[in-house]
Specification:
CATH topology of the largest domain: Rossmann fold
Strand content: 15-25%
Shape: globular
Distance between the termini: 46 Å
Bound molecules: pyridoxal-5'-phosphate
Structural class: alpha/beta
CATH class of the largest domain: Alpha Beta
Number of domains: 2
């Protein structure tokens, strides 16, 4: 068992060959500074007690692990539990990481944070913790995403954040990250870059995973209390991969627990029509290892190595690279990844709404769709924990238009 764990992380910031720190020289010093601050914070009693207090009293942890009785009956297969991250303050798991990094910015004496956002959830989480801790906040967001997520833009404004529209490239998350990095390089002495997923250069993928792994630690305790056994399967949607690794991490040593990540299959298999980086077996084209935004991982790219445009109905899953730890878990076959289409996700959102009375975020609806598509592979003895990463309020325009 320990050999699995040893091979999972071979060097600091490396997951097998993936991860690392591929950045211009100007970013090396701030990344080292951040890594050191994070290492100190890990064993700093006052940091940890502030973190626990904010997670509990501000964000609303622990979140329930809810038995989904009517969805279980509807699918006629495994027993299904939902980890209710949608019930957190601001409506998604993103706040777990935002609280951790917001506190870290305070510890480092940085009064200003910059963040990027796709679905707007990370921007809202960043603006929220910035307001709560008295930090200045600037959020970069692609104009395409601003149109899709107008409600979240209004929330960020109300919270006192400045939202900067990014009109370059595909006008989505990738372009917003470029702009946030540019700002960070320019203002590094006063500014912390609050990255929203398990992406970017070391220490971000490790640090964000650690802040999100509270999800799996709670879920493990809760399922053992409720069912007196470990789950057979974990399911989560995968954009950058933070909610998925947040659930998976506490179960990595439990080799009987199968882990399934669901990506955005968009509207087709061809490059440009999807955001499926680890689903080549299903015919999704264009992913191979490469460097994007500081990390070595699977990246959607054309034959010349140009980063591909991506499509997903869900802004939070619409990104050409995947967190490097997922690339390694996939290579090791410790986790499996597959993609579901836009329309399967929409149908799944309706199914969850009508069986459980929960309107999921479009991202989370992908995980539900992945479960529904696999229903024939399960037995009634199987026990599933599905991470409900966020609530659907932000997606009501899309639901009203398409359902
Ligand atoms: C941002 C977001 C995601 C995707 O991000 P990960 O880092 O892959 O978790 C998933 N669900 C919701 C609700 C989100 O807001």
């Amino acid at each position: 068992m320990s050999s699995i764990l040893q091979s999972l992380t071979t060097a600091p910031g490396r997951f097998g060959p993936y991860g690392g720190r591929y950045v211009p020289e100007t970013l090396m010093v701030p990344l080292f500074e951040l890594e050191r601050a994070y290492e100190i914070a890990k064993s700093d009693v006052s940091f940890q007690s502030q973190l626990q207090s904010l997670l509990k009293n501000f964000a609303g942890r622990p979140t329930p692990l809810q038995f989904a009785s009517r969805l279980t009956e509807h699918l006629g297969g495994p027993r299904i539990y939902l980890k209710r991250e949608d019930l957190l303050h601001t409506g998604a798991h993103k706040i777990n990481n935002a609280i951790g990094q917001g506190l870290l910015a305070l510890k480092m004496g940085k009064p200003r944070i910059v963040a990027e956002t796709g679905a707007g959830q990370h921007g809202v989480a960043s603006a929220t913790i910035a307001a709560h801790l008295g930090l200045e906040c600037v959020v970069y967001m692609g104009t395409e995403d601003m149109a899709r997520q107008a409600l979240n833009v209004a929330r960020m404004h109300l919270l006192g954040a400045q939202v900067v529209a990014v009109d370059s490239g595909s006008r989505t998350l990738k372009d917003a990250i470029n702009e946030a990095m540019r700002d960070w390089v320019t203002n590094v002495r006063t500014t912390h870059y609050l990255l929203g997923s398990v992406l970017g250069a070391h220490p971000y993928p490790t640090m964000v995973r650690d802040f999100q792994s509270v999800i799996g630690r709670e879920a493990r305790e809760q399922i053992l209390a409720a069912e007196k056994r470990l789950p057979t399967h974990l399911l989560a949607c995968v954009g950058g991969g933070s909610n998925a690794i947040g659930l998976f991490y506490a179960f990595l040593r439990d080799s009987d627990v199968k882990m399934i990540g669901i990506e955005a299959g968009g509207r087709g298999n061809e490059l440009g029509e999807h955001a499926a980086r680890l689903a080549a077996a299903q015919g999704y084209a264009g992913a191979r290892p490469g460097v994007l935004q500081g990390t070595y991982t699977y990246v959607l790219q054309n034959s010349d190595g140009q980063i591909a445009t991506t499509h997903s109905i869900s802004a939070g899953l619409d990104y050409p690279a995947i967190g490097p730890e997922h690339a390694w878990l996939a290579d090791q076959r410790r986790a499996q990844y597959s993609a579901v289409s836009d329309s399967a996700a929409l149908d799944a959102a309706r199914t969850l709404a009508r069986t459980e009375g929960i309107i999921p975020a479009l991202e989370s609806a992908h995980a539900i769709a992945g479960l529904i598509e696999r229903r024939a592979q399960f037995t009634p003895e199987d026990l599933v924990i599905l991470n409900l990463s966020g609530r659907g309020d932000k997606d009501m325009d899309t639901y009203s238009r398409l359902l």
